[in-house]
Amino acid sequence: MKNNFNGLQAIKIGLVVTSVPHFPLEKARESMDKAVELFPVSKNNLVGPYLVTTSEEAEKVANQFKIKGIDALIMIEGAFTWDNILARLTQELGDLPTVIWALPEPPMRGGKISLLSLCGAIMNAAALKKLGKKCKFIYGPLEEEKTLSHLKRYLNAVATVKKLRHSKYCLVGYRPTGFYNSAFDELYARKILGIETIHLSLADLLEYALNIPDKEVEKQLNGIKKEWKIGEAAERDLYNSAKLHKFLVDFSQSNKVDCYGIKCWPEFFKRSLSMCFVVGLLINEGIMTGCEADFEGTVTMLIEYYLSGRTPYLADLTHLDEGNNTCVFWHCGAAPPSLASSKSEIIIQKQFRNLERGAAIEFPLKSGRVTIARLGIIENKHRMFITTGEALPTKLILRGNPSIVRMDSPVKDVLNTIVGNGVAHHYAVVYGDYKDDLIEFCRLLDMELILCKEE
pTM score > 0.85 for this model? Predict the structure, then answer.
């Protein structure tokens, strides 16, 4: 279990085991020894564990945690614990993500109660609720995988929240005309998510990128030709894509940009350019990039990427088949090539809408379990739409990047949920089942959930 906490190295955890002095402290100490084994023992990410049995001890430990700058507090109820102990810890540490972990009672064969951990934890959770403190409640043995999975999910969500608060979004240009859902309030987004926004003009991007000498991108160009088939895309399209890609990678490194939202039309199209291939390459390299300057769609991809460590893509919902309970998710050639159904099906084409335009990367997406989500701000509330399904083997039924997904919920309910809640038209899709991880993330930020009914 030691290495199973994705993102654990990004956060510092304070660990305490609590009890009252008149309960058997040897049991609490045994829990401390077991608890240490759950985490990589490192001065960088684990502070403690401490055994805390009085309010005075709690205050001293809280001061240590403040000095060390912990990001999350885990309180294991080694045995029955008074409310004032947990109250002191949480009040001293403020609104820190907090876990109360109750342990099952050892085998009961008559005689005295041994731990009374669950009873104490229920009592403590009620007290903290009345004090206005949020906490994650976990019940189960320290060594049980099912119990640990709940802790892992919570800590990954904590790490994701922290990463977002140190992330930077670059808006390139502005939203396309008529795309109201791509607009956003950057101050409100920073207040809720902590993301910083910077700006790059289309004029600067085009001037600096296209003036890069051909010879500076020849190595990348030769690599592209060796790796993938070249279709309608002309040599100049490939050079232009390589230059735009190089500039944006260099800009992200020099300005610490984690994700881009790019106004990819009509200015590029008027110059026989396309950002599609470039967007796919950037996402593939861990720089989440949303076409059509879609902030909320791009940040949803970033959240999925931080939570899962896997590469997502952004797609439209284009078709429903009620008979097969499937949806077609698609976009116009900007998906990351690592998600292709097979490398042999990847082909670099002209952007399909008009052969005067630049390069796009086309292929059907691979099969597998998928989680589909969309962050949105409606009526000054952050909300997240989440659903799941199974991506089926798909042919190139549409130019671009199609995927047929059999949904876990009735497709008509998916559609009604989207439209009825004003969920916008781009969806971040990541392979794997991360619904519960996203729910945990939303709860940490008091974000409203939009979920579909499951069959």
Answer: yes
Domain containing residue 73: CATH number: 3.40.50.10940
pLDDT higher than threshold 50 for residue 3 = no
| 140 and 181 together in one domain | no
Between 33-42, 287-296, 394-403, the lowest mean confidence (pLDDT) is in 33-42
Residues 391 and 344 in one domain: yes
Residues 306 and 197 in one domain: yes
Number of separate domains in the chain: 2
Considering the domain architecture, whether residues 443 and 399 belong to the same structural domain is answered as yes
Rounded to 10 degrees, what is the CA torsion of 188, 193, 195, 197? -20
| Domain encompassing residue 91 | 8-146
pLDDT tens sequence across 86-108: 999 999 999 899 999 999 988 77
Same domain assignment for residues 137 and 214: no
Judge if 55 and 142 occupy the same domain: yes
